[in-house]
Specification:
Number of helices of chain A: 0
Strand content of chain A: over 45%
Shape of chain A: globular
Oligomer: heterodimer
Structural class of chain B: mainly beta
Number of strands of chain B: 11
Low-confidence stretches of chain B: none
Order of helices and strands of chain B: EEEEEEEEEEE
Structural class of chain A: mainly beta
Radius of gyration of chain A: 13 Å
Strand order of the largest sheet of chain A: 1-9-8-3-4
Mean pLDDT of chain A: 93
Number of helices of chain B: 0
Amino acid sequence: DAKTTQPNSMESNEEEPVHLPCNHSTISGTDYIHWYRQLPSQGPEYVIHGLTSNVNNRMASLAIAEDRKSSTLILHRATLRDAAVYYCILSFGSNYKLTFGKGTLLTVNP
Amino acid sequence: GAVVSQHPSRVICKSGTSVKIECRSLDFQATTMFWYRQFPKKSLMLMATSNEGSKATYEQGVEKDKFLINHASLTLSTLTVTSAHPEDSSFYICSAKGGDQPQHFGDGTRLSIL
């Protein structure tokens, strides 16, 4: 499986934008990029996913580099409820398996 | 949005007991369901993948006779931890996928074996 690399932790301030980076230099042409987040003692929550083009939804935006070797999850205005571990995951084509790495622990300061 | 319900949320039982955990997709048909395990301060580890009506596919190192998975309908999968021992204590999480939808996760089951 293609691997992803994320910073262990990041901090942001409330109501400011947050850019969470993810490197995936070995991504293949059919790998989708998924982002999930997990609060303590809860299951992961789907955030967004994409293949080649940038994606927007009500939760976040996903910016995918032109060579697809990196991507950035953008939270436009962080709130305290956005504090969580964020996972960037690649899935191969129609193989739906998700392999979770260590993720990025996002702390949001009031 | 898609909702996945997992029950029970917490169970405490004696060593040697078998424990069943249910995972239901409430508003969509889940052709594929997944079971994960998560130890404290660690990431989720995939245990098995199950497709409706067929046998589950287990990840390397996961004992299929220890962790019995049934996916008899498009909305329900169960995980039974047989003859549970303290080392089986963990946070078990299911997810479900249907059609073009991404995987959606349940809220997990905290299993504690005394």
